[in-house]
């Protein structure tokens, strides 16, 4: 499994390194980006309700207590 994961990491790093080694554009028209006006729109992020967060914290505390109990 480690060998498979290492192979995936190696192949991924090679894939990410290929565009970095590409030759830069030689024509001035290719390097200049056109000016574009973009309006920023704020999207409201759905907030986690208090009850859900309390359940998650309680579950984490119970799991931590069980781990400490097994360790003793």
Folded structure, characterized:
The protein contains 3 helices and no strands. The chain is mostly helical and 72 residues long. The chain is 62% helix and 0% strand.
The gist of it:
This protein is mostly helical and 72 residues long. The chain is built from three helices and no strands. The two termini are 32 Å apart.
In terms of topology, how is this protein built?
Elements: H1 2-20, H2 28-31, H3 50-71
Task: Throw out a few tags for this protein.
single chain, 72 residues, mainly alpha, 3 helices, 0% strand
Secondary structure: helix percent = 55-70%
Poorly predicted tracts of residues: none
The rough form would be described as flat
Measure the end-to-end span.
Answer: 32 Å
The strand count comes to 0
